[in-house]
Amino acid sequence: MPEAKKPIWYEVYAAFPPLVDTTYQDAKPEDDNKEDPIRPILYPEDKIRAKFYRVYGNGPRAFVLSRLNFKSPCQRFVEKYNRLQQRGEVDEDKLFEETAKALMAEGLLLQKQAAKNLSITSEGIPISFSKHKQTIFTILKCS
What we know:
InterPro entries: mS23_dom, mS23_dom_met, Ribosomal_mS23_met. It comes from Phrynocephalus forsythii. The chain is mainly alpha-helical. The chain has a two-stranded antiparallel ribbon. About 40% of the residues lie in helices and about 5% in strands. The chain has helices at about 10-15, 45-55, 75-85, 95-105, 135-140, and strands spanning about 120, 125-130. It is elongated, with a radius of gyration of 28 Å. It starts with 9 loop residues before the first helix and ends with a helix. The protein has 5 helices and 2 strands, in the order ααααββα. α2 (about 45-55) crosses α3 (about 75-85) and α3 (about 75-85) crosses α4. It has a domain at about 45-105.
């Protein structure tokens, strides 16, 4: 290799070759047909978050992510839920409601979503009642 075309790392590589062979080999042809198993990654608090968003929704305002110490209402709910669960003072069946009451005592107002936003399922697709009120009334009137 001419001196002008040598990369700057070439002499170091020649002086200190790698201990393990670094050649790349393609995967075996029979491995091409196998699919990599994708395991679902679920944490215990994911069930709490899912129930929180199902019951309370996202809330009326957008999150302020520019603040460094910002915690969403859902995150605060999960943390409080875990603290109450670790103490063991509250029955598991009532823990969700007791967490909401405890947060309300701390000043976090949670409004249940059912009163604000009714949904009708048509062929398995949820339709927001508040967003499509005129369309739904038109469909009901025509049928």
